[in-house]
């Protein structure tokens, strides 16, 4: 899939803004894309941030949690698609965030390393999954 450059707000306090290559992931490729993401990142530490459609500062929902899975729930024709992110809160408890009515999925990367995944709903709200190093 073609990559493009896009202005983005950095979410890890390194800088206020940065330019990251971005890959738009189309709905017809979500299943294999998320399967690959799960294989590469399951167990990795992640932060999950929420940015409402009006802009402003992202709100941190989870910090330094272990990613368990990202999955797509494709709606029937005419119904909205959803994405679900599951992380472990501790060794025994899983928590989940479902993003309804998804319109865009974007992967930001630098030097071939995934930096963040952005899932945008129809109302403009974004859930941002930041991969920790």
- The largest sheet has its strands arranged as 1-2-7-8-9-3-4-5-6
Identify the overall geometry: globular
- The value of Rg in angstroms is 14 Å
Order of helical and strand elements = EEHEEEEEEE
CATH topology of the domain at 42-133: PH-domain like
DSSP, total strands: 9
The helix content is under 10%
CATH architecture of the domain at 42-133: Roll
- Estimated structural class: mainly beta
Return residue spans where pLDDT drops below 50 for at least 5 consecutive residues: 1-17
* Largest sheet composition: 9 strands, antiparallel
Please state the average pLDDT score.
84
Beta-strand proportion:
over 45%
Number of helices, counting only DSSP H or I runs of 4 residues or more: 1
CATH class of the domain at 42-133: Mainly Beta
């Amino acid at each position: 899939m073609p990559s493009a450059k896009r202005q983005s707000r950095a979410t890890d306090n390194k800088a206020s803004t940065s330019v990251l290559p971005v890959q738009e992931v189309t709905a017809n490729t979500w299943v294999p894309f998320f399967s690959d993401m799960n294989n590469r990142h399951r167990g990795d530490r992640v932060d999950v941030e929420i940015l409402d459609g009006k802009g402003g500062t992202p709100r941190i929902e989870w910090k330094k949690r272990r990613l368990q899975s990202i999955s797509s729930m494709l709606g029937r024709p005419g119904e909205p698609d959803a994405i679900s992110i599951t992380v472990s809160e501790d060794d025994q408890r899983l928590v989940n965030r479902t993003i309804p009515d998804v319109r865009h999925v974007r992967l930001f990367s630098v030097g071939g390393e995934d930096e963040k995944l952005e899932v945008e709903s129809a109302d403009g709200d974004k859930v941002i999954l930041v991969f920790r190093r």
